[in-house]
Amino acid sequence: xxxxxxxxxxxxxxxxxxxxxxxxxxxxxxxxxxxxxxxxxxxxxxxxxxxxxxxxxxxxxxxxxxxxxxxxxxxxxxxxxxxxxxxxxxxxxxxxxxxxxxxxxxxxxxxxxxxxxxxxxxxxxxxxxxxxxxxxxxxxxxxxxxxxxxxxxxxxxxxxxxxxxxxxxxxxxxxxxxxxxxxxxxxxxxxxxxxxxxxxxxxxxxxxxxxxxxxxxxxxxxxxxxxxxxxxxxxxxxxxxxxxxxxxxxxxxxxxxxxxxxxxxxxxxxxxxxxxxxxxxxxxxxxxxxxxxxxxxxxxxxxxxxxxxxxxxxxxxxxxxxxxxxxxxxxxxxxxxxxxxxxxxxxxxxxxxxxxxxxxxxxxxxxxxxxxxxxxxxxxxxx
Length: 383
Ligand code: HMG
What we know:
Layout: E1 3-11, E2 15-18, H1 19-26, H2 30-37, E3 41-44, H3 51-64, E4 71-77, H4 89-95, E5 103-107, H5 113-127, E6 132-141, E7 154-164, E8 169-171, E9 176-179, E10 185-186, E11 195-196, H6 198-220, E12 229-232, H7 237-247, H8 253-260, H9 265-270, H10 277-288, E13 296-303, E14 307-315, H11 325-333, E15 336-337, H12 340-348, E16 358-359, E17 368-374, E18 377-382
Parallel strand pairs: 2-15, 4-5, 4-6, 12-13
Antiparallel strand pairs: 1-7, 1-8, 2-3, 6-7, 8-14, 9-14, 10-11, 13-14, 16-17, 17-18
Helix pairs in contact: 1-2, 3-4, 6-7
The protein binds 3-hydroxy-3-methylglutaryl-coenzyme A.
């Protein structure tokens, strides 16, 4: 039985900061960000946008086309958790009117968790092929102001359904994966910004890629020539380019652009979306490439800490009819640009912890917003 991605939808916040603005404020040559890091803009979520509203906004177009009608399980991947106990997906249960007969769970392993969710979803569909699983990855990447990671912040969510006989991408059974106990990037429960050993994290990303690819190649018997495109976890687009250069030693700039270029377009403007980042890349590839029907693409998922996995999938005939390309492109072009002062004000907004009633200011969001807090309870509303 073929199992894989049947529908996919991407959402990012309605605001961005241009990295040239950040560079000017920090006294850094903008080319370090634009060329060296490979990022143009970073998505910034205002106070009334969080992982729940972004996830709901990503899933909403799927709901509108009836793709969530027989969902039995919702797996919510994030590393920007909003509660130590309650799964963020349960807020979506009401926002999206999901059926009562639906399991809802939250998963964590840094940016890898959406791929863990995909694997679990495939297992559930293999057992009950008549049902579908909704996977949502939603994250806000946040580092300390003025730190090297600041320019790699971002936010976004991807919602995708896993089904039998999928319309977009069947996932191959072969995979190579790798884990190690490392401290390359982490966020203790008491901090709202991630801590990172930046250079070390780029090395562990590559080490894990090499080990995962080696296993995958041995198990599948495939070589790099068997793939028409590659999608990588994208903390910043230069990282994905460097990763591919490690596998395809000596690849020309032209060929590098051909095999990964389209997958980097959305991330260059949205920034790191952590658990969603690989799937933002996949959406960007499918939306922007020529017809890829019948072609195999390679995917590399990486989550600090660390777990990596190389896997692959085959693009299905007529997949373009299922894409939300126009919606994604309009969303990205219609975002509002923030001034540097607005960016810092939003950064410092914070979440009150006194248990009082707090109404959050209304910014532009998608169809849902985080309205505020009452007795430590988060209140969401439709816009
Ligand atoms: P840095 O150390 O300040 O940057 O921050 P740098 O000095 O290494 O410069 C970056 C690149 O820009 C270099 O290119 C420079 O040469 C170039 P490279 O040598 O690497 O090819 N450069 C310029 N280029 C053109 N014109 C200029 C110029 N100046 C410099 N004028 C660092 C880099 C990655 C450390 C930082 O951004 C950081 O800490 N980021 C956060 C961590 C991160 O994203 N790690 C990636 C791997 S781990 C991962 O992907 C997991 C993650 O998503 C989290 C999770 O799993 O949950 C992060």
